[in-house]
Write a structure and sequence with these properties.
The protein is 52% helix and 8% strand. By secondary structure, it is of the alpha/beta class. Helix 4 runs antiparallel to helix 6 and helix 8 runs antiparallel to helix 13.
Length: 741
């Protein structure tokens, strides 16, 4: 017998590991000297030490928090790996396992129905045996628009799928395919038949677009409102049946099901996690495939190869027994060259997730992952009796029966008939009452970041994950291209992350006993990431006000410790720059990431922390609003021009304007103070810090005083905030001068 070739391989970049660990050693040594310098302050004579105690304590506390988060961050850099897959070594199609696909949508007003259907069509066209592919659209809004649009998509799929298969089309999302300037045809590009078929398919797609618009208009004219329907409706399960048209009846299409769980205003619905659990149960009694692809409605399959690539890990005997899911990175088709909002989340997918992949695997990231169905069942095998099982997973006998099926081709019983009453029970509000759903079974509740929470518990239960990041993106989405959506979305994420950090499942306490210490530190960094708001607010105000009043908080240029305080920020900035450049970014991209980190820290991080604390105290309930995915031409134009769109809430604008105004006024006043007193060596670091904040955040200044377009900061707000800040600053300065006099 010949040697069995592996389905996947992992690669450790030894040079990167070596440089990362050398950087950690040098930076940690510098941090130790910084702490020593700060602690020595407390042993000085209170009568002779120059800086006041309070601002010194604030700055020291900020440095401690930044050092703590930095230490947590290094776990990602300890052992990064990359992976290679060999899908050509997979078994023949007849021996491949069945696959379920969940596509989640919630609100057709914010998630355009045509885009949702394009995602559906791209998933139906995956390079996988259609008889083994089962798609479920989870419509949490219960909208007739989505259901009727699916029926239209089914008709168009009977033309689209054969076209993609016949001509080996790579991009199988129709909207994306027909928007490409030169549609791909590969070996068939010169074929008359190909161009004739492409023209015919394009005409049918345009007719499909019109059908979707008509469905939406018919619903609008009927008088129904999505908001009312979305919060109060019965469960709806409908199989989209085959079209009986004789010209397409021979076409094999995947199995397609519409699922809308029951929702009542009086019953907690647990957001996306609740919707996923409902469709998870329904699919178990219909198809029960052993592997599930989860997609957000705006994340279409840009390549048909992802299923086979994921199975290279799931079917690999070396990794499969403990493997829960294969995570693909989220990538976006609407990212500009310099990505001013860091919408592609470069650091997460290019650095952090690769680092976790060398430990126990990346965190579950909401979309674009292939998960093993059995890993979400918890510890059901420990239940000895049917009664214990019913208390664990609910009273459905059909669902309990599905637990013991392996999801092979023989056990998948899809077709025109299915247990309709059972599926309606599984999608009802009351089914989860008295069970472990959302606590130990399925996707977990308790936070709007259900993906991170679920991934953390899977790791705690001994499951691993892998990152699959092939050169060609497998999934492409539509990312936020305006400041408002970015900060609103960030507030929700950071609230959810801190929820986990403040819960009994705190990664620093709950994690180390159940997983590797480094993996626990990775999760801790994610959950405590919102705490950046505390040191950044402090370091954006306290040193500047002390600069204005001639109070030094850092060592003189002639002091040996000066080089420690200079080395630490330069070390961190250089490391960030190297990572950006090594992952395909540019210097401008690095500046943009620095800027958006500062903006998010003083806005969405702060409000996310407030929301998490209020929720912890029982003063506020968790909320989840889908990100608006309707494209705005003006927003897109500004984004492509690298201009910030400041049309956002005052709760986000006021902190930005306040911080930049304080820094400008203190920098000007500080320069005057230094020139008049001559103590530049004492104030150099404070001058450098203030100047850096001003330079990096120049677009805010531009939005305040230069720009005249619709995306500027309105003068009324700018004048109000600036006048208040200047008045306060002048008052504090006069008070300080009079006090010394």
């Amino acid at each position: 017998m010949g040697e069995i070739l592996p389905l996947s391989l992992s690669h450790v970049n030894k040079f990167l590991v070596l440089t990362n660990r050398l950087y950690m050693l040098l930076h940690f040594t510098a941090l130790s000297f910084l702490v020593y310098y700060r602690l020595c302050f407390f042993f000085q004579d209170p009568q002779t030490r120059e800086p006041p105690l309070f601002p010194w304590l604030l700055v020291f506390a900020s440095e401690i928090i930044l050092s703590f988060i930095w230490i947590l961050h290094q776990a990602f850099r300890w052992h990064p790996v990359s992976r290679t897959v060999f899908p050509e070594r997979l078994p023949q199609d007849d021996n491949l396992p069945p696959l379920d696909v969940f596509i989640c949508t919630a609100d057709p007003t914010k998630e355009p129905t045509l885009d949702v259907m394009n995602t559906l069509l791209s998933a139906m066209a995956l390079d996988y045996p259609p008889e083994k592919l089962h798609l479920y659209v989870s419509d949490d809004g219960g909208s007739p628009v989505t259901l009727n649009a699916m029926k239209e998509a089914w008709k168009f799929a009977s033309w689209w799928l054969p076209f993609c298969t016949r001509y080996k089309i790579e991009c199988r999302c129709p909207k994306a395919y027909f928007s490409i300037s030169e549609n791909e045809g590969g070996d068939f590009d010169g074929s008359f038949e190909f161009h004739a078929d492409k023209k015919m398919i394009k005409e049918k797609y345009e007719a499909f677009e019109e059908d979707i618009k008509r469905v939406k208009e018919d619903q609008d004219n009927s008088g129904d409102t999505t908001g009312k329907i979305g919060q109060n409706h019965p469960p709806i399960i409908e199989v989209i049946q085959e079209n009986s048209s004789c010209e397409i009846e021979q076409v094999k299409l995947p199995f397609l099901v519409y699922v809308s769980r029951e929702k009542k205003p009086s019953h907690p619905h647990h957001f996306k996690a609740g919707a996923l659990n409902a469709v998870y149960r329904v699919s178990a009694v219909i198809s029960n495939a052993p592997y599930i692809l989860v997609l957000d409605c705006d994340m279409f399959c840009s390549s048909p190869a992802s299923a086979r690539q994921a199975l290279c890990f799931h079917l690999n005997p070396e990794t499969s027994p403990s493997l829960s899911f294969v995570q693909f990175p989220q990538k976006y088709h609407n990212i500009s060259k310099n990505d001013i909002y860091d919408s592609q989340h470069r650091s997460a997918y290019k650095v952090l997730w690769q680092g976790m992949d060398g430990l126990m695997g990346p965190v579950l990231s909401g979309t674009g992952f292939y998960i093993k169905r059995g890993s979400l069942y918890g510890n059901y095998k420990l239940k000895d009796t049917d009664l214990e099982l019913q208390q664990y997973v609910g009273t459905s006998n059909e669902f309990i029966k599905s637990l013991n099926q392996k999801g092979t081709a023989d056990s998948v019983t899809v077709g025109r008939t299915f247990p309709e009453e059972e599926t309606l029970l599984l999608a009802s509000c009351n089914y989860e009452i008295g069970t472990k759903w959302g606590k130990e079974v399925g996707f977990l509740y308790g936070t709007v970041c259900e993906d991170v929470h679920t991934g953390f518990i899977l790791n705690c239960n001994g499951w691993n994950s892998v990152l699959c990041d092939p050169p060609q993106p497998q999934f492409l989405g539509n990312s936020t291209t305006n400041l408002n959506d970015l900060l609103v979305q960030g507030t929700r994420w950071f609230c959810g992350l801190l929820d986990i950090g403040l819960s009994r499942l705190c990664p620093l306490i709950f994690g180390p006993l159940r997983m590797s210490l480094l993996q626990s530190l990775c999760y801790a960094q994610l959950t405590y990431f919102p705490l950046y708001c505390l040191p950044l607010w402090c370091l954006a105000i306290v040193p500047q006000l002390c600069l204005l009043n001639g109070i030094p908080l850092y060592p003189k240029v002639s002091d040996p410790f000066f080089f420690i305080f200079l080395f630490i920020p330069l070390s961190a900035l250089t490391k960030h720059l190297v990572e950006v450049l090594s992952t395909g970014g540019t210097f401008r991209k690095w500046i943009n990431e620095q800027r958006i980190w500062m903006i998010a820290s003083i806005t969405s991080h702060l409000y996310g922390c407030f929301d998490a604390l209020l929720k912890k105290c029982g003063l506020k309930e968790a909320s989840f609003l889908p990100t608006n995915k309707v494209e705005d031409d003006e927003q897109t134009r500004l984004y492509q021009m690298d201009k910030y769109d400041f049309r956002t809430s005052n709760m986000f604008l006021v902190p930005m304007v306040a911080v930049i105004t304080i820094n400008i006024s203190c920098f000007i006043g500080g320069i005057y103070k230094v020139l008049s007193v001559g103590n530049w060596d004492q104030m150099f670091i404070q001058l450098f810090l203030t100047a850096y904040i001003i330079v990096v955040n120049y677009p805010i200044i531009e939005g305040l005083v230069i720009r005249k377009d619709v995306g500027r900061i309105y003068p009324s707000l700018a004048l109000l905030v600036t006048s208040n800040i200047l008045a306060t600053t002048i008052t504090c300065t006069l008070y300080s001068v009079l006090r010394k006099a």
